[in-house]
Amino acid sequence: MTEDVLAELRALRARDLPTHGGRTLAYVYDSALPGLDELAASAHALASSVNGLDPTAFPSLLELENGVVRTAARLLGGGDAAVGTVTSGGTESCLLAVVAARDSRPDVERPSMVLPETAHAAFHKAAHYFGVRVVAVPVDPDTFRADPAAMAAAIDDSTVLVVASAPSYAHGVVDPVTEIAAAALARGVRCHVDACIGGWVLPHARDVPPFDFSVPGVTSISVDLHKYAYCPKGTSVLLHASADLRRAQYFASAAWPGYTMLNSTTQSTRSGGPLAAAWAVLRHIGDDGYRTLALRALESTRVLREGIGKIDGLRVLGTPASTLLAVTAARDDFDVFTVADEMKARNWYVQPQFAHRSSPANLHLTVTAANAGHESELLADLRASVEAAVEAGPVRVDPEVVAFVGGLDPDSLTPAEFAGLLAAAGMGGGGGGVLPERMATVNTLLAAATPALRERLLIEFLGALYS
């Protein structure tokens, strides 16, 4: 019976994108180190039943978390003063950074935070959850880096937090943290650096300007363990420059007849499994191992970037400094959404990104250590995919349909009308396999929608998936 259950699970997993081998260039991070999965799974099993709600009841988790935080703080220039918390992921780390900044300033009636428009959507989620107003500042239209002068000008008496990225997800560029943090410091405002992706890589990169606690004015940093620390999913670290800065992140409530609730994260009960797995992986790989993995991923990114520059019709956006690439079309006789479909047919997943302001539609590539040594295969398939996309020509959708979709008001449509739109776009129906094999037409229709309509369409689609 046990084997039957596991066999059923294996059959379900066989439909997923591959999580190893470097062919899924988003969502997953693969070190390609043998035995790492087994170590993490064993460590997870040892602590999966332990509850992180009360560190005094389970002191093993307290020691593990403090050890993980010390490792991250040492890597990111925190010294002995920096403190931190292990969270469930980068989004939770960013949420907690925002709520800590908000709650540290109870004197501000309508708190706001200043973001470059390239900041991760997690900060918009935090704004939505916690009632913090977003002041989104345009970035340089060519480099996609934050404009420190414009960021400084956007800070006012309502600002409780300023955010910079190291790097930004969409383009892989590092914002000018020194200048942004200085502007925040001059106004007495917290400055958070989102290093969820870069925190375990950029310390080993050359020619990257300072971005960590060595920069005056940086008050908190988020860094994910389940990205380039190659730990299993479900672990990130939020670091604060001091315990005083972290205090507002904590939540306590004695206003009920049960135990006094005391939480360091948005979660109460949380399994010790992910933390134990992360601790084990960090100990196993070690500082020298991480340096090797980071340099391997950085070098692979450099090779791919140079190779993409030699493919007729493609160009890389901005000047990426880490391990992320945004690749767009340099001509108008093919569509990058079709390139994504062609890559999928060749067993690669590249992530489509829609146009936003000066950033055209593009394909996102997350490069990991697993891509090292396999760049020529990826580049050959990318070149063939572009050739196939040129032969197919740009995606053609009836202009009247595009105009119709572009003019829809998401607030005036009923759920039934949304269902009809989803079906027309090839996203209707339930039961699992709801998407067509080729997504170029769907993505073109979504690109024609306003951001608000696209959000609503995808929310309705998500609801259909879980029905």
UniProtKB/TrEMBL annotation:
Keyword Lyase found: yes
Record-linked Pfam families: Pyridoxal_deC (PF00282)
InterPro entries in the cross-refs: GrpII_AminoAcid_Decarb, PyrdxlP-dep_de-COase, PyrdxlP-dep_Trfase, PyrdxlP-dep_Trfase_major, PyrdxlP-dep_Trfase_small
Modified residues (N6-(pyridoxal phosphate)lysine): K227
Gene3D superfamilies: Aspartate Aminotransferase, domain 1, Type I PLP-dependent aspartate aminotransferase-like (Major domain)
Gene Ontology terms describing biological process: carboxylic acid metabolic process
Taxonomy, superkingdom: Bacteria
GO molecular function, one term: pyridoxal phosphate binding
Keywords on record: Lyase, Pyridoxal phosphate
Cofactor: pyridoxal 5'-phosphate
UniProt entry tagged with the keyword Zinc-finger: no
Membership in a protein family: Belongs to the group II decarboxylase family. Sphingosine-1-phosphate lyase subfamily.
UniProt name for this protein: Glutamate/tyrosine decarboxylase-like PLP-dependent enzyme
